[in-house]
């Protein structure tokens, strides 16, 4: 079931068109990653989806409710974790949560629950400004979970945090998705997107230029998984044997060994190794290269994701 | 209620800030004390009189104010405009109404002594007239011509007192401090609103199922609540600690509320216009102090030239100041200060409309 559907989103700031004709959907339990360099228009897109920024054009539906005509009802279904640490530094974690719980109409017991979810129960009585960067981030996420939203929107929720807090946040997101929440996630970090996202949209200069699962995007670019083998023995024979395996699309000499182009490296690696060892060739090393989103990104935009 | 939630969070933050609390509570009351101590000795206590003041009008230590009837006198004493009132109608035993404060007790002594001395003088006159056959007037002038050298008593003070004896000048500074600080702190605490916007908390509120109108109303409520709290601290604090008289309680309460509205509105506008907290504090102090000066909170309005008086009444401070003077010095009440209230509410309405409009634009873009 589709939870978020946005179409034709457009917004300009003076002479900059920050977002131009962006459309995508997110289903229940799906995690959608919006990837793009700084200034690509991620935050602007998210702000229009969460109803905090007016749209020049386009429409947003959450569970079929239009943001343009039923903003309050739509907002009730959306949890928002903004890019900045939008909390009161001079209030405690619990006081911050209680305040937003009031605005969301969520009960007191939800405050304790989300504190537990993000692992801040023990520090709930401390002022937010005394928290570490990672704890502030976790509190920032907790606020977005107070009212059990159908759609959770996270704008770079892990920017500049310690690995422990980052893992905690990523685990939280995973669990929420597993419970059926639809998730819109933007990030700079490729590894995060690859770990978390079922589908990815690549945005650059306000345009959504590609969309799909990692594998779909990679294949659309003609990029394939590669297995590089460093071998001792009869390379000619090995070439013939390996070329006969299903899923192996090509075999070429590569220094002291061979390089295979395959459909799915993880799947066919056991077959490749088995075939070689039964033919008297010794494998000295194996290297698997799966083209990642970074590669996709570089291809599509000519830019690295992180400058 | 979301409006109350947002309003309360503002008060909560102001109360949590130690430095802020110093400016909110300690400083204004300290100033009431310091200014009261500096000017305290200068004012002579006032006693209200219905009927003939007699020898009281010649007493250097009291000032006499005449009242048309007993009920007006009683009201004035109850409101603390005067500390004692004397009812003296032909033939009846004189009756004295006193407040249960230091000045009241002091006046009781003074008035009793004065009345006794007056009775003694008349009795002595009767005695002279009876024994010499002189008529009363001549006899009294004979009595008056007898000079008794005052008994010399050397007085020295022992121990220490928190408030000097005969202290009564706090009233002078209190309403000025109330006006200055209510407005000033409403402006400087608008920095909280600017911070809320800068941190992205306001945008985040907008992402919750809360309309922009409710958010703006909540922030406005917060500003007014802080101003009202500030005013109450000065009003109640000065009355309890230093016995300051504020005149008619309804008039004083209404003026306080109206001026808190003006201050809150100004804070809302400043918080919506400014981009940084430093800007807000700077502009707040500048505006707060200059309006206070032009409004007669530093130098009394009575000393203003006619032109400056016009300027004073272009500021809310001038109106509030004159309103409080009307209550404390001219025996005014809720109805006498109605024009002041109307002007202040007008100021507030303009400031709130501008502030709400600007803030709403700044938040939703
Ligand atoms: N409030 C604003 N006023 C003017 N320009 C803005 C504003 N917000 C964003 N922009 C511009 O819009 C573009 C997209 O910004 P943004 O959505 O924040 O990108 P991202 O989140 O991907 O880094 C940028 O060029 C940015 O400078
Ligand atoms: Mg951004």
Count of alpha/pi helices of chain B:
14
What's the SSE pattern of chain A? EEEHEEHEHHHEHEHEEHEHEEHEH
Report the largest inter-chain contact.
A-B, 31 and 23 residues
**How big a fraction of the residues of chain A is strand?**
25-35%
Strands in their spatial order, largest beta sheet of chain A: 6-7-8-3-9-10
If you average the pLDDT of chain A, what whole number results?
89
Radius of gyration from the alpha-carbon trace of chain B, in angstroms: 27 Å
Proportion of residues in helical segments of chain A: 25-40%
Strand content of chain B: 5-15%
Mean pLDDT of chain B: 85
- Shape label of chain B: elongated
- What summary fits the major beta sheet of chain B? 4 strands, mixed
Instruction: Count every helix of chain A, treating DSSP H or I runs of 4 or more residues as helices.
Output: 11
CATH H-level superfamily of the largest domain in chain A: P-loop containing nucleotide triphosphate hydrolases
Q: Provide the list of bound ligands, each named once.
A: adenosine-5'-diphosphate, magnesium ion
How much is the radius of gyration of chain A in Å?
23 Å
The secondary structure category of chain A is alpha/beta
